[in-house]
Amino acid sequence: MFRNLAANLILHERIETTDAKAKELRRIAERLITKARRLGVVAYTPQADLSPSDRARRLAASRLIAAYVPRFGVRLESGGDVKRVDLVEKVMLDLAKRYASRPGGYTRIVKFGPRRGDGAPISLVELVEPGEPRKASDPSEGEPRKASDPSEGEAS
Length: 156
What we know:
By secondary structure, the chain is α+β, with helices and mostly antiparallel strands. It has one domain: CATH 3.90.1030.10. It is 43% helix and 19% strand. It is built from six helices and five strands; from the N terminus they run H-E-H-H-E-E-H-E-E-H-H. The strands form two sheets. It has a three-stranded antiparallel β-sheet with strand order 1-5-4. A two-stranded antiparallel ribbon has the order 2-3.
């Protein structure tokens, strides 16, 4: 089930699912993208320009990704055309290049509310855009709290 969810997230770059599945899918998708991203430039350099050791690294990473995600996905284009997409190559070429400078947090979960039929909480899982900044923490959270003065609590 999670293999197909991960494949659809890579293919469409956003899917709707339940909250529990979305949280687990985030772990899986981020690990797949990180495997490709850790290769660096090797992930998206043409095969002919790579040294034999870099080819071996790229092959090993693509096999790890292919072990979890189906090789091909099918997407319907406008006009009813069917487009066959190589999901492993999309992770290696497109997503690794897109998130090369991002240290993590490639997905976002947006909660929609309960599903109409059974009331299950529904969320949208999507890949973030490369230019978007990571979620900034509230400045008031980072400030240290004042410690109470020990002399104030003493009774004389």
